[in-house]
């Protein structure tokens, strides 16, 4: 019975893109729609989990039965996820978080001038890395959005971030990655096992990811 598989488990899921302001009318963002994370949240709820979804996306309907928290910047994403991290059994980071933000946010709309504009960017916090360092009972799952050397980068992330599983998607492959309703993912585990999924809807991908996590939790 699908309903029972995640009963009693607290799941923290992140979704969508962050937005880093340059001035009151402009920001830096990326192509993540939030669909992958929302599909995970909906399917986890159907499997009986207590779900918190921290989302940078503000245009998708609120998933039924899910505690939805909207954020905008990487810093807000960090603050909100950390509030729920300690009590979570499973954490899945499908959000596309900005790695850099403008060092200075102009309080007024920037006026155009002649010549080029150079914007100095500073690093944001790496939330997955931070979680890997603080991790206790949590089963920590990161995503890797890559365009090349998928397997190598996924394995490096697994180690560096101290994650239990990295879900890699080749965001240049037809039918995979950002914005669409389908994805093609490969799951890399800490124990070196690998599971490749075919092209599936994001909902079906989510179900398979959650089932894989349940299996791994059972192994421990
Ligand atoms: O939202 P959709 O349109 O449905 O698209 C889904 C997706 C392509 C966004 C999703 O499947 C995906 O791959 N998400 C991760 C995107 C990403 O930012 O990957 P990354 O390789 O840059 O980051 C690796 C991991 O570190 C991710 O789990 C990310 O959440 C996390 N991270 C990144 C930067 C940062 N400052 N803090 C983080 O925690």
TrEMBL record:
It comes from the Bacteria. Keywords: Decarboxylase, Flavoprotein, FMN, Ligase, Lyase, Magnesium, Metal-binding, Multifunctional enzyme. This is Coenzyme A biosynthesis bifunctional protein CoaBC. Its cofactor is Mg(2+); FMN. Catalyzes two steps in the biosynthesis of coenzyme A. In the first step cysteine is conjugated to 4'-phosphopantothenate to form 4-phosphopantothenoylcysteine, in the latter compound is decarboxylated to form 4'-phosphopantotheine. In the C-terminal section; belongs to the PPC synthetase family. Residues 11-220 are annotated as: Phosphopantothenate--cysteine ligase. Its EC number is 4.1.1.36, 6.3.2.5. Residues 6-214 form the DNA/pantothenate metabolism flavoprotein C-terminal domain. It catalyses: (R)-4'-phosphopantothenate + L-cysteine + CTP = N-[(R)-4-phosphopantothenoyl]-L-cysteine + CMP + diphosphate + H(+); N-[(R)-4-phosphopantothenoyl]-L-cysteine + H(+) = (R)-4'-phosphopantetheine + CO2. One of its GO terms (cellular component) is phosphopantothenoylcysteine decarboxylase complex. GO terms for biological process: coenzyme A biosynthetic process; pantothenate catabolic process. CTP binds at residues 99, 109, 143, 157, 161. One of its GO terms (molecular function) is phosphopantothenate--cysteine ligase activity. The keyword Flavoprotein applies. Binds 1 FMN per subunit. Pathway: Cofactor biosynthesis; coenzyme A biosynthesis; CoA from (R)-pantothenate: step 3/5; Cofactor biosynthesis; coenzyme A biosynthesis; CoA from (R)-pantothenate: step 2/5.
């Amino acid at each position: 019975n699908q309903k029972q598989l995640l009963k009693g488990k607290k799941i923290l899921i992140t979704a969508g893109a962050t937005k880093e302001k340059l001035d009151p009318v402009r920001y830096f963002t990326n192509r993540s729609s939030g669909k992958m994370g929302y599909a995970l949240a909906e399917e986890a709820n159907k499997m009986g989990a207590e779900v918190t979804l921290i989302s940078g996306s503000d245009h998708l309907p609120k998933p039924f039965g899910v505690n939805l928290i909207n954020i905008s910047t990487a810093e807000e994403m960090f603050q909100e996820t950390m509030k729920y991290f300690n009590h979570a059994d499973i954490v899945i980071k499908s959000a596309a978080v900005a790695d850099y933000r403008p060092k200075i946010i102009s309080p007024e709309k920037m006026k155009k001038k002649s010549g080029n504009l150079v914007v100095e960017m500073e690093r944001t916090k790496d939330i997955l890395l931070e979680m890997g360092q603080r991790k206790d009972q949590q089963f920590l799952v990161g995503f890797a959005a890559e365009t090349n050397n998928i397997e190598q980068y996924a394995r490096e992330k697994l180690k560096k971030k101290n994650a239990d599983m990295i879900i890699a998607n080749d965001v240049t492959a037809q039918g995979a990655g950002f914005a669409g309703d389908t994805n093609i993912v490969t799951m890399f585990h800490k124990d070196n096992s690998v599971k490749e999924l075919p092209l599936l809807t994001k909902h079906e991908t989510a179900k398979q990811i959650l089932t894989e996590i349940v299996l791994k939790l059972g192994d421990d």
